[in-house]
Structure formats: structure tokens, C-alpha cells
Amino acid sequence: MSATAPIELTGVDGPRVGARGWAALVVLMLPVLLVSVDNTVLAFALPEISLALQPSGAEQLWIIDVYSLVLAGLLVTMGVMGDRFGRRRMLMIGATGFAVVSALAAFAPTAGLLIVARAALGLFGAMLMPSTLSLLRSVFLNRDQRRLAIAVWASAFSAGSALGPIVGGFLLEHFGWGSVFLIAVPVLIPLLIAGFWLLPESGDPNPGRIDPLGIALSMAAMIPIVAAIKSFAVDGPRLSAAMFLLMGVCAGFLFVRRMRLADAPMLDMSLFRRGGFSGAIVVNLLSVIALVGFLYFVPQQLQLVIGLSPIVAGFVLVPGMAAMIVAGLAVVPVSRRVPAHIVVPVGLSLSALGYVIVAATTGLSGVGWLMVAFAVLGVGIGAAETISNELILAHAPAEKAGAASAVSETAYELGAVLGTAVLGGIITAFYRGALVVPEGVPAASAAHARETLAGAWTAAHDLPAGIGGALWDAAAAAFGAGALTTSIIGAVLVIGAIVVAATTLRPSGRR
């Protein structure tokens, strides 16, 4: 397709659904709600997990993002399998496996086993996520209804993120950290019961073939790249990090080449020739990197540095989550009249401002500015996610909904991985570089303090009050320096998303 060819947007004049269709939407929101709750709860549970399991700095990063890494690596594969074997079937298998592994993760005795459990959750999560968005495309054929349904679906991410701190804070104050994983069970049981009745089975009559080598190449592209970022964050510039990066880039090149030359590719690369599709994917990616990076370091700032309890820290972020939900829904009527290449950059400008507020107020002890910053950030992210997800589905043929949904979810989950790996790695590197251990601190305590902020908290409280207080003051100051740098980089990422949206989401030809 040429750059000036008209783009045919599917489902514009399709039939409207009734009450059964909207009930199906409620069912499809449950796994989305669960995944977003799980991500936010884990961010708030990280200090408790760090104190209980004593992970190293690298293990702490892996606990957070091994789930998203495995999920991102398998999303395209599972999207194609859903197109081939049935999207509802894949949804039910994923829900069952996710519930079982969540229960096992709750009782992991070591950081290593928790990482393994999180990886298994990524496998079953990869079955869940593409199916929800592709089934939504199958249920809502009318574009106006689909736009609203996607806004509600996208708001489930924000709603889950808003509920996560509150539910997680309550659980962490009354039970152990493992309780945050058990919430998957009551959420997924209604999906397993109602899904067979409300959700239609759908698939692609001409699906892409299952390509074992393609699957291996996609994993071989993402895992080394993230490993390189982690290695750089933990150990600084080393030859091993450069080698990992080179391996990932080469595998990515081979994956794209294989998909382009195959007669029935696992991933139809022609989708990326549509500017609106590719631009929306990049906007999703950069927006999620900025959001997840924020949610990585702010809970540590609230709980460890400022000293709030988990539940109080959760309530600090609720206004931002609410702003994200409201913005995602409010942008629907606006997007009918104002083109995406204007709405999305305007919204993301607010997100960039949110990061600027964090950078400008670093070092202040109050929580008010963090609350305001996240509310401003949430408005832009909520609006951008609704419009970009709708554009991704609108530019894809109905029979390729699973593959297109998988690409959209891959961008989201890869953004979650990179948000933790890049921004989390940067704040870890700056924390270690800026930490000046006071004289008199034992070597073992100093080494523990250099690993993570939670490690510094533990070490400081195990030492006598005077020297322990000095160590903690130094650690808090070092973490603040890392947060300042991370906020500036987060603002730059959002500005990059603004440029992409303004240049790629312009209408091309007549709809």
C-alpha cells in the first residue's frame, strides 16, 4: 500500500449490538482488570517482597518484568494460535492456567522461584490478552459502538491500576505479600463461568501458520535486548551488554525478514505499512514505558523515603488513576470531531508536564506534588491509549483481529518491560552511582545498601541509630538523584510519542 492510498477502515457501518454484547464486554474486561491490578499490586508489594526474600538488584528487576517479557515474546504467537484454534478457547485456557499459577506464586519461598512463577504467568497471560481485544472486535462490528467499547476496555487497565493500590495496601497491611497473587482466583472464576455463554467463538479462515523458528526468533530478539539493558543498569557498560544487544538486534532483523518472505507468515508485516497502525503502535509503546517507569519508582518513594503505609501510598495515586479513566472515556466524543493527530499530542503534552512536575519537585517531602503529577500524567495516557487502540483495530481486517490485537498487546507489554528495564535500570544505576556510604558502615551493610533502596532500608535499621540514620539519609538522597534523571528521560519519551502521533496519525485519503 502506498503512503497516499486510501485506508479502508473496517466495521464503520456494521450492525449494532444489544444487551448481550455489552454483557460480553464486561466479561472481556475481567482479565484486563486482573492484569492491571496485578501490575500495580506488585509494584506496591515490591518493598515487602524485597524485605522478605532479599533479592539482589537484578532479581528485583526480574521479579517485576519477567512476566511482561515472556508475555510480550509470546503475544504474537498466541494471537495467531487464537486466530487458528479459536480465540475463546485460548481465553479459557489462559484464564485457567493464570489462576492456578497465581496461587502457586503466592507461596514462593525464594526470589528465584517467584521469578519462575512470574514467567509462567506470562505464558498464560499471553493467551489471555490478544483474545480479549480480538473478541471485542468480533462482538462490536459498528465502529461507533466499538470506539466506546474500546474506551471502556482500556479504562479497565486504569480501573485495575486504581484498585490495585487500595486492595494491595489492605492485603499487605493484614496479610503477607503472597496474598496479592491470590486475587486472580476470584476475578477469573466469573470469566470461566460466563465466557462460554456470552462470548462467540471466532477465528481466521486463513490464519498464519505456526512457525517454531519465528517464535524462537521473536524471543531471541527481545530477551537479549532486555538483558543488555539490565546488565548495563546493574554492572555498568560492559562487553557482555553490547553482545546481548547485538544478538537481539540480529535476531529481530532475521524475524522481520522471515515474516516478509513467508507465504503464510505468522505476523502479516503488511499491517505496518499503514501509517495509522504503525504510529498507534509506537504511541502505545512510548506511553506505556513512561507510565510503568513512573509506577516503578514512585511507590518506593512514597513507602520507603516518605514513610507512608502501603494503603496510604495507594490512595495517593488514586486521583491519577481516576483521571486516566475519565480521560479515556471523555476522549470518545471528542475523537468523533477532532482528528487523532491533534487529540493525542495535546493529551500527551499533559503527560510530559506530569514528568516535569516530578523533576521540579524532587527532594520535597510532601506527597501533594506527586499526586498532582500523576493526575496530569494520567489524563494524557488515558486519552492516548483509547485512541491508539481503536486505530489499531480500525486499520486491521476483521479476520486478522487476533494478529493485530497481539501486536497492540505486544507493544503494551514490551512497553511495560522497557519501562521497568530502562527507567528502572536508570534509577538503579544513578542510585548506585550517587550513593556515598558514610564512614563506619560495615562492608556487608554497605554492599547490601548498594543493591536496592529496600536493601539500604534494611541495612540502616539493623545498625545503631546514629550510623544507620546517616546511611539512610545518604540512600534517600541518592534515590532522589536517580528519580530526577528518570523523570527527565520519561518526559523525553513522552515528547517522542507526541512527535510520532502528530506525524503518523494524520488521515490519509478518504475513509
Short note summarizing the structure:
The protein is mainly α and 511 residues long. It has helices at residues 19-53, 57-85, 87-105, 111-139, 143-174, 179-182, 184-198, 212-235, 239-261, 275-305, 310-335, 340-360, 368-394, 401-434, 443-451, 453-462, 465-504. It folds into two domains: 19-211 and 262-504, MFS general substrate transporter like domains (Growth Hormone, Chain: A); 212-261.
Q: How would you summarize the topology of this molecule?
A:
Blueprint: H1 19-53, H2 57-85, H3 87-105, H4 111-139, H5 143-174, H6 179-182, H7 184-198, H8 212-235, H9 239-261, H10 275-305, H11 310-335, H12 340-360, H13 368-394, H14 401-434, H15 443-451, H16 453-462, H17 465-504
Helix pairs in contact: 1-4, 1-5, 1-7, 1-10, 2-3, 2-4, 2-8, 2-14, 3-4, 3-7, 4-14, 5-11, 5-13, 8-9, 8-14, 10-13, 10-14, 10-17, 11-13, 12-13, 12-17, 14-17, 15-16, 16-17
What does this structure look like?
The protein is mainly α. It folds into two domains: 19-211 and 262-504, Growth Hormone, Chain: A; 212-261. Mean pLDDT is 78; it is low at 1-12. The protein contains 17 helices and no strands.
Mean pLDDT, all residues: 78
Number of structurally distinct domains: 2
Q: Could you tell me the radius of gyration in angstroms?
A: 22 Å
- Silhouette: globular
**What do we call the CATH homologous superfamily of the largest domain?**
MFS general substrate transporter like domains
* CATH topology name of the largest domain: Growth Hormone, Chain: A
Largest sheet: none
- Helical region count? 17
- Give the tally of β-strands: 0
What share of the residues does DSSP label as strand, in percent? under 5%
Low-confidence stretches: 1-12
Helical amount among residues, as a percent range?
A: over 70%
Q: Report how far the terminal alpha carbons are from each other.
A: 15 Å
What is the C-level CATH assignment of the largest domain?
A: Mainly Alpha
Give the name of the CATH architecture of the largest domain: Up-down Bundle
